[in-house]
Specification:
With about 80 residues, this protein is mainly α. Helix content is about 80%, strand content about 0%.
Amino acid sequence: FNNEEIIDQVTENTIKKDNIYKKRGSIIEHLFGTIKRHFGYTNFLTRGLESVNTEVSFICLAYNFKRMINIIGVKELITRFRGDS
């Protein structure tokens, strides 16, 4: 390796990492922002790993219901749950 090759490699790796962080910011950070701001959920109410895992599952379930309602609407969601065509 000479200095130019090393600089090019570092630059290429930096660009790749920037793209990864941008994708992460648009995918995952939105979820956590919604949970914190819209749900007002900033810390766990329970203690212990199993209990906290259950709590997180309920939070994710609520988030997913919110998303489904925003995407397809309440009437369509009820229709799909009932199995009506």
